[in-house]
Amino acid sequence: MSDLRETIIRTSLDLFDQNGFHGVTVKQIVQASNTSKGGFYHHFQSKDELLFVIHDTFITYVLKEAQAANVTHSSPIPKVQAIIQSFVHVFDLYKPHISVFYQESLYLKPEYEERIKGKRDEFKRMIFDVIQEGQKLGYFRKELPLEITGMAILGMVNWIYKWYRRDGTYTIDQIAEVFTDLVLHFLLPGKQDSEYFHHMLKVPFFYESE
């Protein structure tokens, strides 16, 4: 990514966050980015495409991380651990992008919205697939309904955007460890099995159960 393109994105994130998508013009973005309209349109066809890129950046990241976890690990336990870790970290890595996403996603053009939805659906499917794989192989509790379990994980992690602060009490690494711990503890069949897999895979739990 070119320096100017990154500058335009970073500047627009601040402007959209402060004034809303419709409260910002291309002229204002150009002026705040210290560039020209030619510089802007060299990288983005329109303000609408810029909004799409902001949305697409963090969704693409978390999807690629999930795909990498699926390839790297053969067992569903480290797979789900890696997916949760990267999913939590996205709320720190792309905090401004996500803030603008939740504020301005209604203004995405239909063609862009469809592309974003496609990636979000693919990530959701990957969460469901790893849970289902773990249940079939006997690693995860089979009595847990797949859809409820998958949506619980997605909802729990997605809510981070509402309360996470970089200057807060806990670092994103600590939060990621707690969330991984919580997910593994409710997925694994029982305390004895949980301790076994913890030992065998050296899962870095943030705290230990009594």
From TrEMBL:
GO MF assignments: DNA binding
DNA-binding region: 25-44
Keywords linked to the UniProt accession: DNA-binding, Repressor
Domain HTH tetR-type residue range list: 2-62
One Pfam family, short name: TetR_N
InterPro entries tied to this protein: Homeodomain-like_sf, HTH-type_Tx_Regulator, HTH_TetR, KstR2_TetR_C, Tet_transcr_reg_TetR-rel_C_sf
Protein name: Transcriptional regulator, TetR family
